[in-house]
Amino acid sequence: xxxxxxxxxxxxxxxxxxxxxxxxxxxxxxxxxxxxxxxxxxxxxxxxxxxxxxxxxxxxxxxxxxxxxxxxxxxxxxxxxxxxxxxxxxxxxxxxxxxxxxxxxxxxxxx
Amino acid sequence: xxxxxxxxxxxxxxxxxxxxxxxxxxxxxxxxxxxxxxxxxxxxxxxxxxxxxxxxxxxxxxxxxxxxxxxxxxxxxxxxxxxxxxxxxxxxxxxxxxxxxxxxxxxxxxxxxx
Lengths: 111, 114
Description:
Chain A contains no helices and eleven strands.
């Protein structure tokens, strides 16, 4: 049974720092992996989607990597800003509509 | 208008009440989903509809009853809920149910069962 783990559960860093969020999964048989952002009391916004054949995806200050064989993905945020404060979730796709979710990392960027 | 709209944003109901959550998508998508998000727990998929036909019922108790009258609207009818059903209920849509279709989420309904 696929399990997705995100460590740490919470992270607080000063503004301007580069940071890495981690996501690990137990079964490498996945179609893709997605990173989402959730602001308090809001829904989820898709940030990056990495296909199983890809190693990384970039969007602005965000870079997501995927190492399927080791069951790991990282989300790198460059030059963090207070507006980056949110909960970040990763999810792996194992079938057409079934996403397996991590519990999220709550990120706080201190001004 | 946002892509996926959920109403109400907040709902407080007693254990004997009957209420409904509504979701509407303006993206022309063919698949819609209900998810449950409880504190400190991963999102749980509840129901999936594709072209108005239910394709997944993820062992959800019968006190939750979904309805999809057309591809733009999705409802979740609630009756005789339990306090542990208190959570954020998220609706999502996608072009179809294929693995490459990204999900678009609404802002959720915060449900409190007293």
